[in-house]
Amino acid sequence: MISAFGAGLLFGIGLWVSGMANPRKVLDFLDVAGNWDPSLLLVMGGAVAVTAVAFRPLLKRKSMDFKTAVDAPLLVGAALFGIGWGIGGYCPGPALTAISNLSVEILVFVSAMIAGGLFAKIVSPAGSGA
């Protein structure tokens, strides 16, 4: 429990320091035709590098059953995620981190995110978590 809290705290601090909890920074990154801000490439590159190094040994240690098929629910979910990220400037981790701002915008976004997750479980209970 303590290590999970520590990892979450470190993740949240990283989101704040990198600017990922600021929707304007994210939206400027996504605006490749306008006021493009490429600085989040460093954040994403760092995340990919850590994942490539750290997750390989973890995946070898645990036997996990991964879903490998690209199907309609995956594509629809990815599209909805991208649309939400592009409109709101938040993805789930930074959105939860930004709740500390207590702005109406973030509270509406997180409420919609939770409602969408619950709706997905109702629509496709067998597909969740597999």
Task: Give Rg in angstroms.
Answer: 17 Å
**What's the shape?**
globular
The fraction of residues assigned to DSSP E strands is under 5%
Task: Please indicate the count of domains.
Answer: 1
Number of helices: 6
**Largest beta-sheet characterization:** none
Attribute tags:
6 helices; mainly alpha; globular
Can you give a write-up of this model?
This protein has 130 residues and is mainly α. It has one domain. Helices cover 69% and strands 0% of the residues. The protein has six helices and no strands. It has helices spanning 2-18, 23-30, 40-61, 72-88, 92-97, 104-123. Helix 2 (23-30) packs across helix 4. The two termini are 24 Å apart. 11% of the residues are buried. The mean pLDDT is 83.
Brief overview, please?
With 130 residues, the protein is mainly α. The protein has helices spanning 2-18, 23-30, 40-61, 72-88, 92-97, 104-123. Helix content is 69%, strand content 0%.
Write the layout of secondary structure elements.
Blueprint: H1 2-18, H2 23-30, H3 40-61, H4 72-88, H5 92-97, H6 104-123
